[in-house]
Design a protein that fits this description.
By secondary structure, this protein is an alpha+beta fold. The chain contains 6 helices and 11 strands. The strands form 3 sheets. A 5-stranded mixed β-sheet has the order 2-9-5-4-3. Strands 1-7-8-6 form a 4-stranded antiparallel β-sheet, with no helix packed on it. The structure holds a DNA duplex (16 and 16 nucleotides).
DNA sequence: AAGATTACCTGAAGGC
DNA sequence: TGCCTTCAGGTAATCT
């Protein structure tokens, strides 16, 4: 499940391998992953060079430019199971839906569940299609984040998953952040002290940076562009560990449902808010 | 109007 | 070549 650190890794790989290269071909075998049609995307992008790239939350926006300077942008979201492979001798299977050719270097897009999207956008790194997406979780100033969350009455876990408040956290890193901050997933931001909220943000940034350094978390499907799994899984404190002992206090970790998501927490380290 | 639910997909896992 | 149900979760759309 790609969240901010996994998406950042993908972005770095794309930049490192493709910056300055020209897109020379585009093959699409499942049209649903591309918006609009392959023909329309080809018309805008083939012949353009990859100039740069921007990430906000779990979105990547690739900036292409034609020789006359005319810009074009491709917005990418991997959703649940999207993967990019840039790998010598990679053999596509039935889940590879799109191949971009960069002057002989093939870039494969694979997506088992077909939730991911590559979308042509015309309005740069801050497109209207992302107007409802909040600031990036890794860089949002504490003051701005507090303003956006402090009056919320829903469970803090739902707020952290809400990409409109701040973007980048998914189910894994939300549970990890709340555990490190010693905050119960059902606690309401409007009931918490400012210091507790600040601690949640501090821990979220910490866990994202740490996961990034370890190449992301491979739980189900994530691998990097060369097909290697991330190493952060063995660092997880609560996610995927329901019924196992808390690494800090030994209590049995509990599993509940919050905002429709499986949620693991320590009943002793993260005391019930009520 | 924020919060909750469902649709979109496939594969893994478990019960029988 | 076992069948069926449940679960996994990011986001948009649709409810209440």
């Amino acid at each position: 499940m790609p969240e901010l650190p996994e998406v950042e890794n993908v972005g770095r790989a794309l930049l490192a391998n493709l910056q300055g290269r020209r897109l020379t071909g585009l093959k699409v075998s499942f049209a649903g992953v591309l918006d609009p049609s392959a023909a329309a995307v080809r018309r805008r992008l083939v012949g353009a060079r990859l100039e740069g790239l921007h990430r906000r939350g779990k979105y990547l926006i690739l900036h292409f430019a034609h020789d006359d300077g005319r810009p074009a942008y491709l917005m990418l979201h991997l959703r649940m199971t999207g993967q990019i492979f840039i790998l010598d001798g990679y053999v596509p299977d039935k889940h590879v839906h799109l191949v971009m050719d960069f002057e002989g270097l093939p870039v494969h897009y694979r997506d088992i569940r077909k939730f991911g999207r590559l979308s042509l956008v015309e309005d740069g790194y801050e497109p209207a299609a992302m107007a409802h997406i909040g600031p990036d979780m890794l860089t949002v100033p504490a003051r701005q984040w507090l303003e956006r969350i402090v009056r919320r009455r829903g469970p803090i876990k739902a707020c952290l998953l809400d990409q409109g408040i701040a973007s980048g956290l998914g189910n894994i890193y939300v549970d990890e952040s709340l555990f490190l901050a010693r905050v119960h997933p059902l606690a309401r931001p409007c009931d918490l002290e400012e210091a507790e909220l600040r601690e949640v943000l501090r821990r979220a940034k910490q866990v994202l940076r740490l996961a990034l350094r370890h190449g992301g978390t491979t739980f189900m499907n994530f691998t990097n562009f060369q097909g290697k799994p991330g190493n952060f899984r063995r660092k997880l404190r609560v996610y995927g560990r329901a019924g196992q002992p808390c690494r800090d206090c030994g209590a049995s970790l509990e599993k509940i449902t919050v905002a429709g998501r499986g949620t693991v927490y320590c009943p002793r380290c993260q005391p019930d808010p009520s």
